[in-house]
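[scheduler] slot 2 assigned
[scheduler] job type: sequence-to-structure, two independent chains
[scheduler] chain ordering preserved from manifest
[runner] begin chain α
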Amino acid sequence: MNLSWLQTFIYIVEKKSLTRAARALHLTQPAVSKQLNSLERYYGVPLLYRTSRHLEVTEAGKIVYEYSKKIMETLTASLNDVKALDKTIQGNLLLGASTIPGEYILPAALQRFQELYPQVRARLEIGDSTEIGNLILDGGVEAGIIGADLKNPMLKQEVILQDELVVIAPPHHPLAGRKTITIKDFVQEQVVAREKGSGTRLVIENRLKEKGISLERLNIKLEMGSTEAVVNAVAAGLGISLVSHFAVKKRIQVGELVMLRIEDFPPQRDIFFVSRQNQMLSPPMKTFYAFLKDYFNTH
């Protein structure tokens, strides 16, 4: 077995042509055909067959193709990891984040990370949790930090941090003098909410469903596309809201807002590190992930 046979086979399958594969590999077509024949002799079965228009992959060929990709990805990852032992971590860190981690948690973490690894260039894309999941699948970013479990089998999600959801109200609100309210109180009030697709909104919807309450029962006065906009609307007296404590702790400390908790309503929610399933992380991202786990444990 020669690893170059596997690489050549991957190109043949993806290009659906010996000629195009040869061109991409800068080889002659006879050389590509010879490698394909050697691989088929090794497995003892045909891996491709010709139709009138192009090459088709046999069932055995599909299996060999999938394993070949994994072998070549593992080989590349091992090479990158070995190189990283002798060199300072460098390269691009392409990261996505939903609103809460992106605006309130990651800036300080990234600042510290770049002090430790100045040769890493970071780019942070912020969107709602669903958008970040799609961005990862489309290859726009390598990984993300989000506030919702997307339950997508193509994504791998690991809990990396705990957040707390709290009710906020302006200081002059009728509920402001109370430390706790009931679900019934919350449902009866005018609510300022995040838009559909937001991790915070998804968590709230699921928690309400657990209590037998549909989102339609909420008196949503206003939907807004960012947590900061929601917080500003509440401070202006447009209603109350349920938001991340990370987003409002400073405003609560200075008295711009008051914080309430809902009885029998678990406030904790998970913040996830998310990446494509079965994908090897690049050295900068692997280093950042390890850094984040340590950073969150100490801050």
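[runner] end chain α
[runner] begin chain β
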Amino acid sequence: MFIFDAHLDLSMNAMEWNRDLTWSVEEIRESEKGMTDKLDRGNNTVSFEAMRKGNIGLCMATQIARYVHKDNKLPGWNSPQQAWAQTQAQLAWYRTMEEAGELVQIRNKKQLNTHLERWKTSEGKKPIGYILSLEGADSIISIDYLERSYEQGLRAIGPAHYGPGTYAHGTNSIGGIGTKGKALLKEIERLGLILDATHLCDQSFWETMDNYGGPVWASHNNCRALVDHNRQFADEQIKELIGRNGVIGMALDAWMMVPNWVRGESNPKTMGVTLQQMANNIDHICQLAGNSLHVGIGTDLDGGFGKEQSPSDLDTIADLQKVPQILSERGYSSSDIENIMYGNFLRFLQNAL
């Protein structure tokens, strides 16, 4: 089955962690043996080969670069200018992968439909489609930089990531969007970008909803009813997105899937983390919506974690092909499963691009 993944940090893996995604997952793991700078070294799950094997022919691929004030202890760049430059380096990598025939950028509906038809009919190695997304808006030095990003192909943007940001407050922080955030939302709406509500703290989420009338989704966000943490959405937030015809992508970071996960200590097998928890989150949203039209896949695989913090029955991203059978065994129809694996996000994109 064709799969759309609404959130992959491909360029971050390539440019910050020096992973050549043209290698196989196994080759990357072998190259990282003995490395200790990150917990997920040697535990990667994503490569272009694995994506093709799993029929993941289209994804939202991110740029990400946090700007941090001097008193902010989170890792990041010391100026917005540095953060912007980092996103431009990431963009250069995407362009190089296009030249190599590995990727193709999708900017509009015509390109989307052409790409989808190619994946239906073409044989052999096909370029993976990517739509550019910005995770956290700190790299937008001033509002006019957003139009520059749009011209480069940016089609979705999340105002916040972790902590307090320039335009909104994110995960593990408390606060609203302020004057700068409202100006950003106005420009997002003017350009017709997709607003990604992922990572917005509760106050910033609701202020955003009060000040934005354009297309909105959450690329990678699970349910607070299943794991009680501010990173997750409460039912009221999920219902708000449903009411706006939004789609919510299910993430595969283990701490978002089971309670009481301790990073660096907990183990997916002993904690019982499997793709069944993804199905639990899918089902929760479907029950709130009364249908299967508002949930999809947004794995965030290799987004700062790897196999050590992923479902135990997932070795590579190709194992997403196990999800349709899991849903079928729960009574989901073939049309429901197609909605969830790709249809809902593609329908959204057909209207938004």
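[runner] end chain β
[qc] chain β: The mean pLDDT is 97.
[scheduler] slot 2 released
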